[in-house]
Amino acid sequence: xxxxxxxxxxxxxxxxxxxxxxxxxxxxxxxxxxxxxxxxxxxxxxxxxxxxxxxxxxxxxxxxxxxxxxxxxxxxxxxxxxxxxxxxxxxxxxxxxxxxxxxxxxxxxxxxxxxxxxxxxxx
Length: 123
Fold this sequence. Notes:
The protein has 123 residues and is mainly alpha-helical. 53% of the residues lie in helices and 0% in strands. It has helices at 31-42, 48-57, 67-73, 77-94, 100-104, 108-120. Helix 2 crosses helix 4 and helix 4 packs antiparallel against helix 6 (108-120).
């Protein structure tokens, strides 16, 4: 069973001031959100769906049957799917030519990862 414990930190990262960057502008400027998430992960405060998504999508865990763990934890399916897509995209970027994971994986890993993302996205 996966207990749901609430552990909280106050991130030192400050959100963008609305006068500095209007929230109506869709600039994809999520750097402060990413930094705050990294701070939460470093502090050991993260959410279960994110952690499960990262675990299930790790390149080295492809042959593992995660169904028993996922059933025991009963994660929110929508949040888990989003976390899995995020993690899968992370690994895709690391598999690009010249990136760290590209050197440690077979050449077919990049295409396989792209197919995995399409599958997770329902395409």
